[in-house]
Amino acid sequence: MREIKKVAQNRKARHEYFIEETYEAGLALQGTEVKSLRLGRCNIQDAYASFSGNELFIHNMHISPHEQGNIYNHEPLRPRKVLMKKKELKSLFGKVQQEGYTLIPLEIYFNERNWAKVVIALAKGKKLYDKRESIAKKDARRQAERAIKERNAY
């Protein structure tokens, strides 16, 4: 079995949002976009997904133009269609209508069949005090692990 190749990851998302659910979906891409993705030239830090009619699109996902693309190159920030089953889309649409929920891409990768996939998260924004609380928990966990490691070293 082949290894899954991660192309881009949104590390900031877990700090900024509470992740409720995740979904795996395909992407409708042009040829030069796929070539750029294979080279790892993608940024999803500020990306988000929204509905337009019955379809889901990812906005602000930057895929750099391919060097040998010449006149066939793509626009780097164009909205890209997310490919999901209709039942999943309806379910997601209902959840997004609730107060405070948003859709954020967490990572893009190529699966074992060599198709570009995106992991989309149903997320709720964190307040400043929530961010401080999660940082404090992380620091406490690190200090505890460090103390255990030092104690076992003797």
Short description:
By secondary structure, this protein is α+β, with helices and mostly antiparallel strands. The protein is built from 4 helices and 9 strands; from the N terminus they run E-H-E-H-E-E-E-E-E-H-E-E-H. It has one domain: Small Protein B, Chain: A, CATH 2.40.280.10.
Helix content: 25-40%
Outline the low-pLDDT stretches: none
Strand order of the largest sheet: 1-8-9-2-7-5-4
How many independent structural domains?
Answer: 1
- Overall mean pLDDT: 84
Determine the strand fraction and express it as a percent band.
35-45%
The CATH class label is: Mainly Beta
What name goes with the CATH superfamily?
Small protein B
N-C termini distance: 43 Å
CATH topology: Small Protein B, Chain: A
Shape: globular
Structural class: alpha+beta
The oligomeric status of these chains comes to single chain
Write the element-wise H/E pattern from the N-terminal end onward.
Answer: EHEHEEEEEHEEH
Major β-sheet annotation: 7 strands, antiparallel
Number of distinct helices: 4
Give the CATH architecture: Beta Barrel
